[in-house]
Amino acid sequence: MALREPAWRVFAAELTASLHEERGTGERAASYLLSPYGARMNRVLVAGILSSPEAIGRDPSQPFWRARLVDPTGTVAVTAGVFQPRAMAQLQSVPGPRSAVVVGKVHLYRGSDGTGYVSVRAEAIRSVDDPALREFLADALEQSFDRLALVERIRGTGPDSDAALRSDGVPGGWIRAARDALARYPSIDRDAYRASLSAALEVVQGRRSIVPPAPAGPSSVRVTPAEPPAASARAPPSAEERAAESEFLDALDELVEASSDGYADLKEIVQLLAEHGLSSEHAEDILDRLQEAGVVEEPIVGKLRRP
Amino acid sequence: MSDPTADPGSEGPPEVRLKDLRAGDAPVHIVARVVSVERREYTRPADGRRRPFLAGLLSDGTASVRFTWWEPPNEPIERGTILRATGVQVREYQGRPEITINFRSRVAPAGPAELPPVDADDMPLRTIRELTARDEGFRLEARIARVGKKAVMVGTDQREVHEGLLIDGTGVVAFSSWSDFGLSSGDAVRISGAYVRIFRGRPQLVLDSNSLVAKIEGVGLPPAPDLAASAPRRIADLEASQGSELGCVEGIVVGLLPPSGLVYRCPTCRRPVQGGLCTTHGAVTGVADLRSRLVLDDGTGSVTVNAGRAETEALWGVGLDEALERLRRSPDPSLLESSLADEVLGLRLRVRGRVYPDDFGLNVYPDAIEKVAVDLDARAAELARRFAGAGGSHGSA
């Protein structure tokens, strides 16, 4: 059976603490975001206050919308594009902040400074009332407790104990996720995360409400200045650098040409350039320069085009 | 040449019961009932000529074996026919005996009285957990957890089939019976002469006129379960056990798969009509119906719930007549599907029914779908106890 990926019940803080990705290989293989707290996420279910959506990207034929979801632990970006038409319509349907549950695929973008930005590409969105929101937060709390307890339970044990766990009814996918969490995040403070869930517990208990979204938060999108800045103070690039830039732009144009959405995927550009001997750091430097000069823009995380 | 009119019973070696068949050179003599049969053709690579043959399953109540019948008679051999065959070859395939009927064999029709008498006391006692595909020649003691009858079309005949569930201390198995044994829910029974087939990826016990059913005391058998009271299981559990006859799951609707909403079905067989064509009955005028294929997810896994018209109407709040009226007003069926999706996505449901695996995961054929009302205060209290009680993260999973 090729099983559909389950929607992990998680909080925003678990998503934003997740830095490791497991890339699938082969055709149609799934990728997973590995959390420190025992989740191996391809799909998630999150609930909280969803902010007004904003359109990103300038091409009206390729709409792409983004909103912020605030839960008792933090904030995560929720996006929807042309490939999620129903979710996009749902995202746009309500202007103001509202309580909502969102199911979608996790997406990790690693910025040029190495910072990871996690977003959720929505597949389904539903506005909910306050009791229903608290029910979803209760689900996330219960499964977070379960997963954290499992991580502690298997700490120091080998795979030979997995059969016993399975016969206790622990899902196989959870065992694997817990082992990954221990291996990838050996020194993270899970007790501190668990303690921080008191905020979520209080919301479930009805003793407080979710703090409304702060106006500015860490954004998963780099905003391109509307006007190109004045001439750079930097020394003009060498001929070698110019050659590298033109190679970058060639790769970009080639990928835009081949794409269905008019964007070039940054990862694919880096890959193409790597074949010409350019390191990924070098490629990121070139991108920064080209963006500064207004030659290239990145209206969607990881998606490039010429303005 | 096989000759159905010859009487092979008066000569040759004695009959062999199917459970005693061993692969070997010497041809054997059998009497058996045709359990299933299919006419096929084989194209000889040498000259491209096509040779017809029959393939299927024979049973004499002690075992069932696959058979291949080369150069069969032109008249159809039907399921249920009892045959006496001599000069039959036995070979072994994947550890099980198989029979070949060829030009050296002689085949004649036989009556039920000629089948070897099956002494139920001779048969080994099995438990439900031990049943595997094509098992035959066993006794089973179990309790009827549920039974009902439905009318099915076999060819042009309408026949009645009795379907239900059997339980013992080791598990649950679905059964279907072509004969009416007067079974009712709660009865404890001893069944012999039934066989096991695989239906939708799960074992199913089939009873026919050759089977014996006796009511017994049933000491030691579990009582008939309250089918509406079983607790939900994690979907990951059901994935590990490849489904269940008595499944109960609880989760959130995270997706709606096509075809959902307004669908059209063949008036004869109820299969979905595509492009005005039924895969079995050709060009037909489809009959409108409602259905939904809900993806239900509990955080450990997901199932596809195949909800019929009544369940879809209850979840959607839109009946078939209103759906058709909406379609007349704005003739775009996808609007109906969107409306259904908006209504069901995010719902918290408890679903009971049969859970069967296929290539894409588990499918639920529901007996009941209900919206779950959560006691938030109780859940909050339980979570607070867990939060405070464990202190660190050293609870049990």
Which keywords apply here?
heterodimer, A: 307 residues, OB fold (Dihydrolipoamide Acetyltransferase, E2P), Arc Repressor Mutant, subunit A, 2 domains, 5-stranded mixed beta barrel, 3-stranded antiparallel beta sheet, 13 strands, 37% helix, B: 397 residues, mainly beta, 5 helices, 21 strands, 13% helix, globular, disordered N terminus
What does this protein look like?
The complex is a heterodimer of chains A (307) and B (397). By secondary structure, chain A is an alpha+beta fold. Chain A has two domains: 7-204, OB fold (Dihydrolipoamide Acetyltransferase, E2P) (Beta Barrel), CATH 2.40.50; 239-305, Arc Repressor Mutant, subunit A (Orthogonal Bundle). Chain A has ten helices and 13 strands. Chain A has helices at 12-16, 85-93, 130-154, 162-167, 172-184, 190-196, 198-204, 239-258, 266-275, 280-292, and strands at 7-9, 20-22, 32-34, 40-41, 43-50, 54-56, 64-71, 74-81, 98-110, 116-127, 264-265, 297-300, 303-305. The longest helix of chain A is centred in the middle third of the chain and has 25 residues, at 130-154. The model of chain A is unreliable at 215-233 (pLDDT under 50). In chain B, the strands form four sheets. In chain B, strands 7, 8, 9, 10, 11, 12, 13 and 14 form an eight-stranded mixed β-sheet that branches. Chain B has a five-stranded mixed barrel with strand order 1-2-3-5-4. Residues 1-6 and 391-397 of chain B have low confidence and may be disordered. Chain B contains five helices and 21 strands. Chain B folds into three domains: 8-114, OB fold (Dihydrolipoamide Acetyltransferase, E2P) (Beta Barrel), CATH 2.40.50; 120-215, Beta Barrel (OB fold (Dihydrolipoamide Acetyltransferase, E2P)); 235-371, Nucleic acid-binding proteins (OB fold (Dihydrolipoamide Acetyltransferase, E2P)). The longest helix of chain B is centred in the last third of the chain and has 15 residues, at 376-390. Chains A and B meet through strand 1, helix 2, strand 10, helix 3 and helix 5 of A and helix 1, strand 15, helix 4, strand 20 and helix 5 of B.
